[in-house]
Design a protein that fits this description.
The model is unreliable at 1-7 and 9-24 (pLDDT under 50). This protein has two domains: 3-143 and 254-338, 3-Layer(aba) Sandwich (D-Maltodextrin-Binding Protein, domain 2); 147-252, Periplasmic binding protein-like II (D-Maltodextrin-Binding Protein, domain 2), CATH 3.40.190. The protein is an alpha/beta fold. α1 packs across α4, α3 crosses α9 and α4 (101-110) packs parallel to α5 (123-130). The strands form three sheets. The chain has a six-stranded mixed beta sheet with strand order 2-1-3-10-4-11, sandwiched between helices. A three-stranded antiparallel beta sheet has the order 8-5-9. It is built from 13 helices and eleven strands. α6 links the parallel β6 (169-172) and β7. Keywords: Signal. InterPro entries: PhnD (IPR005770), Solute-binding_3/MltF_N (IPR001638). Residues 1-24 form the signal peptide. Residues 60-291 form the Solute-binding protein family 3/N-terminal domain.
């Protein structure tokens, strides 16, 4: 699989959904899923195709994780799990790095991606448009691993309460991010602060870039995922004493892990077995905040709070919504590249 295939999806939003869609035959319920899929059991995710000829059983499985922070770190972090997947499925498993949420969704929709971890916000796009079936979240024997939306400022900032954000420059991460954009837009008005109205929003692209931007003074504050913030502290990339946390939200689930809906059911059972019997090594536990396994979840129940936030902010998990996301991500990538070229020349 060529790297240019997926990266090209980021550059040109017009490539999204260029292929003709196949209507789900004799579907009595589709819900909010794209017309390619059916949901007759009403669990809010795409059913396995009724026609066995539509089941896929690839010789090589492609796996990826959401494009946050340093992609190389996560490619290495999931190496042991990839080997376990190979052992359980009897198939070669390769890791493919995607550089945008839109590209990851389109890779799942187009059949290039078989198993994936999607960050909290984009999971809805992957389910509705990509035929993605979430089954797990990183966790422990007791529960899934959650995170909070936190608002950070510099420790010496004059911003000490949420009200102090008025008139400031605040970094949001990306349009589809739950804690980095959607949750702030849904929750902050109840705190008498409205993004874009009471403060200027600037998109940083990623949680770690928001955090580093606050540290460098590029932004006055930022809503970010608490797990990313604490991982950066634990890794020594930042020091907790340099920041002040002025708000902490209720708990959200972290990245969802799952598979493409049209994989052969026998293969799906092997994939599920791999997820639910795998145990994280000490290195993986360190990387993922103490999580030691994949904890079973359902999209219908465990993603309800995330869907509610999306609905409250007018976010639609539709083709148009994803295309807008792709265009925003492409514009940000072009702007970042232009800045890097200018820096090289300067």
């Amino acid at each position: 699989m060529s790297k240019n295939i997926l990266t090209g999806l980021l550059v040109s939003g017009s490539l999204l959904f260029a292929a003709a869609t196949t209507h789900a035959a004799e579907c009595s319920n589709r819900g909010v899923l794209d017309e390619k899929f059916c949901d007759e059991n009403m669990d809010l995710v795409a059913d396995t195709p009724k026609d066995p000829s539509q089941w896929r059983d690839p010789s090589t499985l492609v796996f990826t994780y959401t494009p946050v922070e340093d992609p190389a770190v996560y490619k290495d972090a999931f190496h042991e799990f990839q080997e376990y997947l190979t052992e359980k499925t009897g198939k070669k498993v390769i890791y493919y790095t995607v550089h945008s949420n839109a590209a990851e969704v389109e890779a799942m929709r187009s059949g290039r991606l078989h198993i994936a971890g999607f960050s909290t916000g984009p999971t809805g796009y992957a389910v509705n448009l990509g035929g993605y079936v979430p089954i797990a979240v990183k966790g422990t024997a007791e529960s899934f691993q959650g995170y909070n939306l936190i608002i950070i400022t510099k420790a010496n900032s004059d911003i000490k309460t949420v009200a102090d954000l008025k008139g400031k420059v605040v970094a949001h991460t990306s349009a589809s991010s739950n804690s980095g954009n959607l949750a702030p837009r849904a929750l902050f008005p109840n705190l008498n602060i409205t993004p874009d109205k009471d403060y200027q929003v600037k998109y940083s692209g990623k949680h770690d870039q928001s955090i580093m931007g606050v540290l460098s003074g590029d932004y006055d504050a930022a809503p970010v995922a608490s797990d990313v913030y604490h991982r950066m502290i634990d890794a020594g990339r930042i020091q907790e004493k340099d920041f002040r946390v002025i708000y902490t939200s209720p708990r959200f689930p972290t990245s969802a892990f799952g598979y493409a809906h049209d994989l052969n059911p026998e293969l799906v059972e092997k994939i599920k077995d791999a997820f639910f019997t795998f145990r994280f090594s000490k290195d993986m536990q360190s990387t993922f905040g103490g999580a030691d396994r994949f904890f079973p979840i359902t999209y219908k129940e465990d993603w309800k709070v995330i869907r509610d936030i999306a609905h409250a902010t007018g976010t639609a998990y539709t083709k148009t919504g994803l295309q807008k996301l792709a265009e925003k991500e492409a514009a940000k990538a072009a702007k970042k590249r232009a800045a890097e070229l200018a820096k090289e020349k300067g």
